[in-house]
Amino acid sequence: MKIPNLKLLLPLIAIGAAAASCQVQTSINSDPEKNLQAIGNEEIGEGAVASHIDLEPRLIKEVNSCSLKTKVPMEELQLADPSNYGTRVKRDYLGRSLSSRPRIIVIHETVMSEKDTLALFKTYHSNDNSQVSYHMLVARDGRIIRVVPDESRAYGAGMSHFMGSTLKSKENSAGSINNIALHISLVSPAGFEQTDSHTGYTQAQYSSLAKQILKWQLQNGIPMSRVTTHYAVDRSHSRYDPRSFHWDKFDSFHGKLTKVCDVAMFAQNMP
Asked: Are strands 136-138 and 181-186 parallel, antiparallel or unpaired?
């Protein structure tokens, strides 16, 4: 299948995404070594989320019970080519300890049809700059499509940061949050490729997105304050997705789900 013009994929492709692990740097302090020491030897890699507390991850049986109550859609398996995702790294290039568990959830949009997006992900890419993937897609009808296993590192946000901090795998790399991120993308409406805006996402998409995000939150202890967008974490100043996303619509679905599962704390923005 012919891959779409690269220019049309700018909001989707994460430049340099494969270099997504290890050393923490922050814009708050110009000396990264001081920042690393302040975090502590056991907390290398935590700087990207240091100011936000974790919630207690729920037991598997609790997660499964909530998923049944909220009717999380069954996953449709459409795995990406192995070249388009990697492992969550536990050590940086200097051998220092690094957090590799999911700490952030990033919402995207595809900018292409579901069919073309999956074709792109299933295509072998030898060039790091062309490698791209998300953990999940949310189809226009609300179906949940699994692209990358949660335990693996998807290449969803190349040059990226969270609250001014980023992770680096190579001394001269741009830095990325992929090592501690879960990426989920909404399939864009047809015809969006040639425009700067679109009609938005379906109610089914908002519903399924909220269900999957709550499931991830419960599994990993991720507070609402670390559920964000590609636009918010991008450092290349070229990503604007998900365009036409309405947090009030998402919050409406998400808030109801937390009440069903009696986990209201996961709907709140923790300090």
From this structure: parallel
What integer pLDDT is reported at residue 40 of this predicted model? 32
Residue 105 counted as domain residue:
yes
Would residue 1 count as lying in a domain?
no
Compute, in degrees rounded to 10, the torsion defined by CA atoms 33, 91, 223, 255: 140
CATH value at residue 22: 3.40.80.10
| Cα radius of gyration (the chain) | 18
Residue 214's alpha-carbon distances to 66, 173, 221, in angstroms, are: 9, 32, 10
> Containing domain of residue 194, as a range?
6-267
| E strands present in the chain | 23-26, 75-77, 85-87, 104-109, 136-138, 144-146, 152-154, 165-168, 181-186, 227-229
Mean pLDDT of each 10-residue bin along the chain, 271 residues long: 41 39 36 32 42 84 98 97 93 79 95 94 87 95 98 90 76 82 94 68 97 98 94 84 92 97 90 63
Q: Which H helix or E strand runs over 218?
A: helix 203-220
Three-class SS state of 106? strand
Q: Which residue has the tokens 């999956």?
A: 118
Sequence-separated (6 or more) residues with CB below 8 Å from residue 256: none
Would you call 8 exposed, middle or buried from its count of C-beta atoms within 10 A (0-12, 13-18, 19+)? Answer: middle
Structural domain includes residue 71: yes
Total number of domains constituting the chain: 1
What's the rounded Cα separation, in Å, for the pair 31 and 36? Answer: 9
